[in-house]
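Notes on consecutive records. When two proteins share a document, each keeps its own sequence and its own token line. Never mix them. Below: protein one.
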Amino acid sequence: MYGDDYFERRDVDKSEWFDIERALKALGVKKRRHRVLDVGGGTGDLARWLRGRGWLADYCDPHAPGAPYCRLPRDVPQADAYVLQHVLEHVEDPYGALAALLEKRPVAVVVVVPGHFSGDETHYCNHFRLVVEEEYEGAWGRARICTLYGLLSAARSRGYQAVWTVDTRSLYAPWDADFVVAVGRRIGRLAELRLKHKQYLAWLLFHGYG
């Protein structure tokens, strides 16, 4: 399921990297001070991009060829901050995985998950929505729709605060939205990240999805 061809054919949205960097800054993660680990980082493209912009970034992955090994929920090295870009939808218990990662007491965790139906057979959670989890019969058997509420609750259960927003691309293609969840110890500048999701919610309501 995760052969070499999986990493060759997967579509990585590099515009989300700027959303991830913006969230790290808002969460108080500092360049050249805090170590950032991209968990499930595939072949390391995001980590290399972050290093090129002055971050102390590394990556690990349970399947990518040549990647340092790690596996959620508990077999993950210690770091000051973690990035999970399109990772939790591949985990059977995404809420438990996030809660377990927060037991390492990082400064921050930035999560990106899909907000639209996916054709990826490796997903335990086909995609995420705001509330109301659901199971259905998919093309590859039973599938789930998971929730942002579950991720926010997992963060709170470990004494963290969290906010969600949408990635920048969602403002131009709301039907293809991905969600960014920023988890940190202090709400502080996290409120700045919520500006985009107001526009996204307005689009949902306008088109009758509310």
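Protein two starts on the next line and is unrelated to protein one.
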Amino acid sequence: MNRNRMISVASAAAVFLLIPVAAAHTASAVEPVEPVEAVCAFQQLADYPHVTRGDASVHGWWDWVKPVPADCVKASGNKADVTVYLQTSLDGKEWTTRSEGEKRVYAGGGSVARANARYTCRNTAKTKWRAVVDVDVVGIADLPNKTEYPHRDLDCGF
């Protein structure tokens, strides 16, 4: 039996590949890690920050890069823990997390398959907001890479 484990490696397009590596080279995971013979690739996704009912809001989700090997879906149950961070900046260089949301969701997004972070606007000052997403596919070890999305200026001060 092959005792390979999976880790993620970021590519330039915010796609993360889960590739087999020898078990001796992986750190222990919180959940059991299934040996997988396939190369699995997924994306960490987010919408632009926006104002909804007086709150700055952002959604994060994930999806497989097609085609998806059956071993990837079997090992993960087609689920991942998605954490989305809602961040602000005054200068576009230093970012502060104002809110975060986490949810275990199926691949693909949609209104029930995404995490949400919200922050109540204190005033209408023009402020830079961005989303940062971290996806941990269930049952498969990966690196702690996060995807930072471009900012949007919103009339929502903190």
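For the record: Confidence is low (pLDDT under 50) at residues 1-13, 19-30.
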